[in-house]
Every structure is written in C-alpha cells, then in structure tokens.
Automatic annotation (TrEMBL):
<keyword id="KW-0175">Coiled coil</keyword>
<dbReference type="InterPro" id="IPR025433">
    <property type="entry name" value="DUF4168"/>
</dbReference>
<feature type="signal peptide">
    <location>
        <begin position="1"/>
        <end position="24"/>
    </location>
</feature>
<keyword id="KW-0732">Signal</keyword>
<feature type="coiled-coil region">
    <location>
        <begin position="55"/>
        <end position="89"/>
    </location>
</feature>
<feature type="domain" description="DUF4168">
    <location>
        <begin position="45"/>
        <end position="120"/>
    </location>
</feature>
<protein>
    <recommendedName>
        <fullName>DUF4168 domain-containing protein</fullName>
    </recommendedName>
</protein>
<dbReference type="Pfam" id="PF13767">
    <property type="entry name" value="DUF4168"/>
</dbReference>
C-alpha cells in the first residue's frame, strides 16, 4: 500500500512539474488560469483507471529523471532535463487517453477525497 501511495505522490509531483512548465511556456499571456478542482463525481471509472495507469508510468519516469536531474552539472542542464521529463510525462498522460488538465484535476481530487484515493489505489493494484 505504501508503494502505491508513493507512486501517486510521484505522479502528482510530476503533474505539478508538467503544470509549472506549461505555465512557464505560456509566459504572461494567460496568467489568471483557475486551478482545476473538479469534484470526484465528475470522473468515471475509465478516467480513474487511465489516471492510475498513467500515474504508475509517470512515477517510473519521474524516478529516472530525478536521478538525471541530480547528476546535471549546471542550471542549464537541469532545465533541459526538466523539459525532457515534462515532455515524456505529458506524452504518457496523453497516451493514456487523458489530457493533462483532466489528469491534474483527478490528482487534486484524490488528494482531497480519501475514498477516491482508495478507489484509484485499488485500480492501480489490479492493473
């Protein structure tokens, strides 16, 4: 159970990285975006399973890129690693069938709803 929670923590951390990078890339053109905070009932089981699957893959990628980030020699190299990690994680989310906003919204919802977190953890364990 701790392993699954760690996977979700890594995935949510990665999702935060994706969001931060996406906002940085947008510049100041759209600085007042509301945070995604969709209620749990807005997500069907299919979306939750897609989230669980993507989270597991993102956790593995995050671990790999965290190591690479620590080995980066300077700020420029670290930024390149972050950008590459972000692109990979966005690709994983999109390949799962979700868009990044939905993935992040589910991530926020499971942080606020222990029952939803439990459902997603069970889905991750059975996949």
């Amino acid at each position: 159970m701790q392993r699954i929670t760690a996977l979700f923590s890594a995935a949510l951390l990665a999702a935060g990285l994706m969001t931060a990078t996406a906002h940085a890339q947008e510049g100041t053109a759209n600085t007042e975006q509301p945070q995604a905070s969709a209620p749990a009932q807005d997500f069907d089981d299919g979306q939750l399973e897609q989230f669980a699957d993507a989270s597991q893959e993102i956790a593995a990628v995050s671990q790999d890129y965290t190591q690479r980030l620590q080995e980066a020699e300077n700020e420029e190299a670290q930024q390149e690693v972050r950008m590459e990690a972000n692109e990979k994680m966005v690709e994983i989310v999109e390949d799962s069938g979700l868009d990044v906003d939905t993935f992040n919204a589910i991530g926020q919802a499971i942080q606020q709803d222990p029952e939803l977190m439990q459902r997603v953890q069970e889905m991750a364990q059975s996949s």
